[in-house]
Structures are given as structure tokens and as C-alpha cells.
Design goal:
mainly beta; Phage tail protein beta-alpha-beta fold; Immunoglobulin-like; Maltoporin, Chain A; 3 domains; signal; transmembrane beta strand; TonB-dep_rcpt-like; transport
């Protein structure tokens, strides 16, 4: 200080109590600028300074107090003890918040002191709680359902598209799924997802899901963590998810988090209800084609709950008596037809303590179809001609998931799930023919039997850690392992007897067993950089072991959000995905003849790259809007080369498929309006869906479901407490199909045996007529004197009876021109259901 006073003419002013006599042990000040010299001189001395011309005021640096931080954690539940997924826990004091995960768990690290917390969830009364935080502790919050929900203000929902970093995610509650309209009066998860932008439904009435150009097998369906392979009943009329059991559905179509892998196009994460921890409740429903029953309640109050639901079709109860009468009346022809399906869900949940929970989830789904035909004719020569045909089809799933959820610390939650999946498809067809003349010497018998059996068994585990070190970081780590056992088998038997002593028998069978191992390791971090920028980045590393080869792939994932204003945000994401299992099929329906097969040493896993950008806005308290664009490429797609049957022999399926690639891009726009009585949404998609299989066609061509434009308008209106209405209008460009462009003679002019044949210019070269329909539904509520709620539902599918094209016929006119005629058969379909809740 004295040297600076002498050389620079500085005058130091300070209080006498300030310790300026302490020795200076820093570097030499000579040669430094004056400002640099002052900073170096007082650094680490406990003295601060302020320079004003030639005077330097010295002050004692205030002692920096260490800010203590503690963690608040717990679960958010409803009034019956059911955990709430994606609920928001927001601290109004520090303006920091978080959302609950798929187990209703939250963790929020805050500074010591008093905090005002706001807990909110769509459809429930918001709760504000004041708490003093002086140590880390657990608080569980309980929200009560609010049937008179007013305006939806998304500023209180950290899971909203405007505030969340995640792209392409839609969360559906049971209210979203169980609308006032239901096809055949059976609410359907997949058909609800079909109304989301970027999703095509495929064939009318079917529960197909074609997301951003992907195939139906490129969607990962998870039921409480266990994968489902067969997700439809009645070849797509119904999905396999019982809406009475579903608590929440998270649907991802782009920007996939690193914790999901194994499919290319979408993730459908379905979570079922744990069950009422307070008292027993239930519901019965009878619909047009099916009925359901559901019960849930405590085995031990506030400790153990059971939730069980059964859905079954009952059309066979009518068809069986009708065909029985037909067989009694008709002597020449006897017909039998029996079809039914069922879904059985059961979930047992046990709360071991405040930090540990155990649950067992079971699912069984099965379709059973049998047909019988017998004809018995007396021939003019006195002989008899007998034909018998029998078909037996059984297909479905059996799933089990044993889950242990444990919270070792306030900031960390761990979860371990043991999973088992069994998928089966059995098809048996028997044809018997016998002919006997009046003479016993002329006898002929034929027996033809064809059987196909295909099973998949998956055994594995999923281990994950949910770590929230601070409100700015949400880290997920985990690994999954699955042992895949694929067993497709075919059998063919022909037995022929023409009166000889020995039968002429031809038997052929084939089987193909594949054992594969799939291991996934992932890490992801949801980072809030500042009030404008947030980032979700991660990596999914997958290993796939198959006889003769091992595949190793690293799939990076990144999503970024820029919060322009509290009501406007912009996002971008990049995702790489790898898929090791494939479904090869010759049909666009869910058929038991479809093969699920693994990647082998001869085939490559399917891989995709997807880029997406978006802009999201809230316009006042009632309106929200978004626009997203995506570009996606896919390699190593599989399809049948030229097999014309429903299913090739099991042993040779690898030789019957070809390898191709895809290119998909588009723009999606969504607008939503919500008030206390009215909910309205509009979803528009402009998309292109191209494929290229060089062994099939040398150039790019449009896919069958390349629907250029798609518009969905959906509205719900609440007249009063007793009446609600739903209406949904769908419009999209027609599906593509391949039609002939020429009809030419193949033989030379001087050849008398001239043949004509259709010539096709390129695959899917024609677009079917525009598709559109209106669905409406009504719910009528009534409360009985015993307090039970009765619900009458009336639904109309295709309300104004527009016959949409299902297939076409090509006709050659006399002048050589080709006329294409479209055909359809699905008119207005009314349905009703009656539900009673107790």
C-alpha cells in the first residue's frame, strides 16, 4: 500500500480496526496496471476496495454464509391412494419445480427456510402448502378430483409442451381415453392415440399405429414395464388395453428419452391403477360386442391393495345357439362358428414402508376362433360325398411384471422390475374328404392337415435409478436385459386312400428356434441451464447377441428448449434408434399368421435417424398451439420378397425377405381450446412417406399409408352434470394402391395363343378417394338412491354414413382402357353401453 502510495499517488482511506498490517505474500506488483495491481494486492486478504480517482476506500469483506440446501421428496396421490403421474410440484418462493415420475415420485432440493409449494394435476383441485425446510424429509401430497375443472392454465403444469423440454410427448389420462364416444361402446387406447398428429390409422376400424411413416411393428408397447407383442383383438377392432385398468399413457413420437429403446417409431408406455387403498369399489359395463367388470380395494387398509379387471366379448353367446339350430335344421350343410376374446388384468400393490413399495402386475389376453363346415350330399349314382373343414386359431399374450420401488435417499429413487412375456399364435386347419359309391369297391378318402405354431418368450429385468441432485438436474441411469426365445413352427400332413390296403401319406414339418440376448445401458440428464435454456441429453447403448454374430450400437439422444417468453418456447431434437426384432407379414391386419423374428447373422438390425424442430405457444388462458417439423430416415426395413401366401415355412423365412430403406418427413400443427364446459382440439399433419427396396423396385415409391393430409377435429361439451357430448371428425388423403396402367398382349403377332397381362408402372401409383367420417357420442349420468353411478352411453361411428373406400376393382373395357372402381362397406355403426359404478 505504501509503495502504491509513493509510485501511483494513491491515498488509502480505511477504518482503524481494519487489519492492514498483515504481510503481503502475493506475486510482484511491478509492471502490472493499476487496476490489476489493486486486485492482486487485496485478493484473499478479507479486504474489499472501491477506487474513486486518487482515493481508495477499504472495507472489511462480509463473511459469506454458506447457504444450506435440503431435499423434499415423496409421492403425489389422489384421495384413494392412487399415485399420480406427471403431477407438478412447484415452489412459488424460489420459482423451481419438478414433476412426478411414472411411480408418482418427486424430489426437489431447495434452500433452507420457508417455502410455499403448489401441487397441481389436470382434473384435480390445486393445493398450496407452506413448509419450513431445515432438514431433508418426506412429504406425501394428496389431491382431490375436481369434476368442475375450470380453465386450464398451463403455467402451473411443468409437463406442458410450452414448458417441458421433451418433444413429441403426449400424456393421456383415463379421462382422455374414456371419452363419450367409443367404437362398439368399448373405449380404446390405440384408437385414442390415432387422433394425435403424426399418426396414421392404416386400415379403417383397425387399431393400427403408423407413426412418422413407420410400420405397425415399430411401436414399443409397454404394460407396467413389460413389452406386448400382440396388441389387438378381432384383427384390430379392439386393442388389448382394458381402459378400466389404465391410469396413464405416455406416448412418444419423436425426441425419445435415452431410457427407451428397441423400436424405431414410437413408445406407448401404459401404467395401470394400483387400486384403492381405502375401500372397495367396482364397475360393470355391458356393451354392443363386449362386457367388462372391475374391482379394486384394500386387502389391508393403507398397506395392500388389489385391482382386477376382466373384459370379454360375448358375441359367441349369441352365435353358438344360432348355429346349433342351423345344424339341427339342415341335413346337407352344417356350419359352426365361435369367436371370443378376453383381457384379464390384475395388480397387487404392497407398501412396505414410506421408502419401499412392491407390486405384481399380471396380464392375460387371448383370441379364440373356431369354424366348422360339413357337407353331406347324396350323389345321383347312389354314392355319398362328404366334406369336412375345421379351423382352430388361438393367439394372445401372457405378461408378468414384479416391481420393487425403493428410495435410498431423498434425492434418489431406484426401481427393479423382473419381466416375463409370452406371445403365442396357433393355427390348425383340417380338411377331410370322402367319397363312397354304391359299390364298396370305389372309395376315396383324403385328410389334409396344416398347423402353424409360433411362440415368443422374453425373460429379463429392468433396473433404473432416478437421481435429482438439484432442481436443475434430473438424471436417469439404468440397464435392461432380455432373453428372447423365438420358436416358429409349421407342419403339413396329407393322407390319401383310394381303396388300397395302405394309405399314401406325405408329411412335412419345419421349425426354427432362435435364442437371442439383448442388453441395454442408458444414461440421460434433464438439465436446466438458465431461465431460457434447458437440455435433455443421453445415450442408449445396446448389445444384441444372436448365434453367429454380435451387434453393438450406440444411440445418442438430445433435445433442447429455448424459453423465449413464459408463454412461448422453441425446441429441437435428434434421435437415433435401433430395433432388433421384426414382424414380417403379408397383411395390414393383426393376423396370427404374422411372424415375430429376431435379427440374425444374415440380417441387419433396423436403424433410424430423426430430426425434429418445434414452436409452442400459449395464447391466453384458454388457447395453446404448436407446430412441429420432422425428418426421419430408416435403414434395413424388411418385407416379403414375393411370397403370396399368408405365411412361408418357418425354416426358410430368412430367404423370403428383402432389405430396404425409408425416408419420411412432414409438418404437424396442433391447436387446443379449454374452458369449464368446452374442450376443442384440432390436429393437422402434412407428411411424406417413401420407401425403397431395390430387389423389388429400383427407385423410391410412396408407401401404402402415405396420407399426404390429415385433419382431426375433436370437441367435448358438458351440457350439465348429467349429460356430456363428444364429436370427432377425421379427414385424410386416401391410402395408396398399385393399379395397372396397361393391358398388353405378351405373345408375338403370328402366335395363335395370345395372352394378355396387366402392366404396372410403379408400386402404389394411385391414391384412393379422400377419407372422412364423423363420430359422435353421448354420456347420460344418473346417481341411484344408494349412491351408485349409472352411465348410459350412445355412440355413432360414421354418423353421416359416408362409405369410404376399402378396396378397388380393375375392369378392362372393350376399347382396352382400364376402369378402376372403388368399393366400401362400412356404413353408420350405432352402439350403446350401460355402466354402473359402486
Amino acid at each position: 500500500m505504501e509503495r502504491l502510495h509513493e509510485t501511483a499517488g494513491l491515498n488509502f482511506v480505511y477504518d482503524a480496526s481494519l487489519n492492514v498490517r498483515q504481510p503481503y505474500r502475493g506475486p510482484e506488483l511491478k509492471g502490472l496496471s493499476l487496476s490489476k495491481a489493486l486486485k492482486t494486492l487485496f485478493e484473499g486478504s478479507g479486504i474489499s476496495y472501491q477506487k474513486n480517482n486518487k482515493y481508495v476506500m477499504l472495507f472489511k469483506e462480509p463473511v459469506k454464509e454458506t447457504v444450506k440446501r435440503f431435499t423434499l421428496s415423496g409421492h403425489v396421490r389422489d384421495s384413494i391412494g392412487e399415485t399420480l403421474i406427471n403431477a407438478t410440484v412447484y415452489d412459488l418462493t424460489s420459482r423451481q419445480g419438478t414433476t412426478t415420475n411414472e411411480y408418482g415420485y418427486y424430489s426437489l432440493t431447495l434452500s433452507e427456510g420457508e417455502h410455499l409449494l403448489r401441487i397441481s394435476y389436470i382434473g384435480y383441485t390445486e393445493q398450496t402448502v407452506k413448509t419450513a425446510l431445515h432438514k431433508s424429509h418426506t412429504i406425501d401430497f394428496t389431491l382431490h378430483e375436481n369434476m368442475r375443472l375450470g380453465e386450464v392454465v398451463i403455467t402451473g403444469d411443468l409437463n406442458s409442451p410450452v414448458l417441458g423440454t421433451q418433444m413429441g410427448k403426449r400424456s393421456l389420462s383415463q379421462t382422455d381415453i374414456k371419452t363419450e364416444f367409443a367404437l362398439f361402446s368399448s373405449p380404446d387406447v390405440v384408437k385414442t392415440i390415432q387422433r394425435i398428429s403424426g399418426v396414421q390409422e392404416g386400415v379403417e376400424l383397425a387399431s393400427g399405429l403408423y407413426v412418422h411413416g413407420g410400420n405397425n411393428d415399430e411401436n414399443l408397447y409397454l404394460l407396467d414395464g413389460s413389452p406386448l407383442y400382440q396388441i389387438n383383438h378381432s384383427m384390430g377392432l379392439f386393442s388389448s388395453f382394458n381402459a378400466d385398468m389404465v391410469k396413464n399413457v405416455d406416448f412418444y413420437k419423436s425426441g425419445f428419452p435415452a431410457r427407451f429403446g428397441g423400436r424405431l417409431s414410437s413408445v406407448v408406455d401404459v401404467r395401470t391403477n394400483d387400486g384403492n387403498m381405502q375401500e372397495w369399489h367396482g364397475a360393470y359395463r355391458i356393451g354392443l360386442l363386449d362386457g367388462s367388470v372391475q374391482f379394486d380395494g384394500p386387502l389391508k387398509k393403507n398397506k395392500t391393495s388389489l385391482n382386477i379387471g376382466l373384459r370379454r366379448s360375448w358375441l359367441d353367446l349369441l352365435s353358438e345357439p344360432a348355429f346349433f339350430l342351423q345344424r339341427r335344421i339342415s341335413k346337407e350343410e352344417k356350419i359352426g362358428l365361435n369367436y371370443n376374446f378376453h383381457d384379464l388384468n390384475a395388480k397387487l400393490t404392497h407398501i412396505m414402508n414410506d421408502r419401499s413399495r412392491l407390486s405384481l402386475s399380471l396380464y392375460s389376453g387371448c383370441d379364440a376362433l373356431s369354424t366348422n363346415y360339413e357337407s353331406n350330399w347324396n350323389m345321383p349314382n347312389g354314392g355319398t360325398d362328404i366334406e369336412k373343414t375345421k379351423n382352430r386359431l388361438r393367439w394372445g399374450n401372457l405378461n408378468a411384471a414384479l416391481n420393487w420401488n425403493y428410495q435410498p435417499s431423498p434425492k434418489l429413487m431406484t426401481n427393479v422390475t423382473a419381466v416375463y412375456t409370452h406371445n403365442r399364435a396357433n393355427i390348425l386347419r383340417c380338411d377331410d374328404y370322402s367319397y363312397a359309391s354304391s359299390s364298396t369297391e370305389s372309395t376315396k378318402k383324403t385328410h389334409h392337415e396344416n398347423e402353424t405354431r409360433s411362440t415368443i418368450d422374453d425373460i429379463g429385468y429392468r433396473a433404473e435409478a432416478d437421481f435429482r441432485p438439484s432442481p436443475r438436474h434430473h438424471i436417469r441411469l439404468g440397464n435392461n436385459y432380455t432373453l428372447h426365445l423365438f420358436r416358429p413352427q409349421t407342419k403339413n400332413l396329407l393322407n390319401y386312400n383310394a381303396g388300397q390296403e395302405e394309405n399314401d401319406t406325405i408329411s412335412k414339418q419345419s421349425s426354427n428356434h432362435h435364442t437371442s440376448h439383448e442388453l441395454n445401458l442408458y444414461a440421460e440428464d434433464q438439465i436446466t441451464l438458465n431461465k431460457h435454456w434447458s437440455l435433455n441429453s443421453g445415450m442408449n447403448l445396446s448389445l444384441f447377441f444372436t448365434p453367429g454374430k454380435t451387434f453393438l450400437n450406440a444411440d445418442p439422444r438430445v433435445a433442447m428448449k429455448y424459453q423465449i417468453t413464459p408463454y412461448l418456447s422453441a425446441k429441437a431434437s435428434y434421435t437415433m434408434m435401433t430395433q432388433y426384432v421384426h414382424k414380417i407379414t403379408n397383411s395390414f391386419l393383426e393376423m396370427p399368421t404374422d411372424y415375430w423374428v429376431p435379427t440374425t447373422a444374415k440380417l441387419q438390425p433396423m436403424r433410424s435417424h430423426q430430426w425434429a424442430v418445434g414452436l409452442y405457444a400459449q395464447m391466453g388462458k384458454k388457447w395453446t398451439a404448436s407446430i412441429e417439423g420432422y425428418y426421419k430416415t430408416t435403414n434395413h426395413l424388411l418385407q416379403y420378397a414375393s411370397w403370396t401366401g399368408l405365411q412361408p415355412p418357418a425354416v426358410s423365412w430368412e430367404t423370403e425377405v428383402i432389405d430396404g430403406k425409408g425416408k419420411f418427413y412432414g409438418i404437424e400443427t396442433d391447436v387446443n381450446y379449454h374452458t369449464q364446459k368446452i374442450q376443442f382440439s384440432a390436429a393437422y399433419t402434412l407428411s411424406w412417406n417413401k420407401r425403397k427396396f431395390e430387389d423389388f423396385y429400383q427407385d423410391w415409391y410412396y408407401d401404402k399409408f402415405d396420407n399426404r393430409h390429415k385433419l382431426n377435429l375433436t370437441g367435448r361439451f358438458k351440457f350439465n352434470k348429467k349429460t356430456e357430448m363428444y364429436a370427432a371428425w377425421t379427414l385424410h388423403s386416401g391410402n395408396k394402391m398399385t393399379v395397372p396402367t396397361q393391358y398388353v398382349e405378351l405373345a408375338l403377332p403370328d402366335d395363335d395363343n395370345r395372352q394378355r397381362e396387366f402392366i404396372y408402372e410403379r408400386p402404389n401409383n394411385a391414391t384412393l378417394p379422400l377419407y372422412h367420417r364423423l363420430d359422435v357420442g353421448f354420456n347420460f349420468y344418473h346417481t341411484t338412491k344408494h349412491g351408485h353411478q349409472r352411465i348410459w352411453n350412445l355412440s355413432l361411428y360414421n354418423a353421416y354414413c359416408h362409405i369410404n373406400t376399402m378396396w378397388t376393382e380393375a375392369q378392362v373395357k372393350d376399347d382396352g382402357t382400364i376402369r378402376i372402381k372403388s368399393r366400401g362397406y362400412i356404413p353408420i355403426v350405432p352402439s350403446f353401453s350401460y355402466t354402473i359404478k359402486f
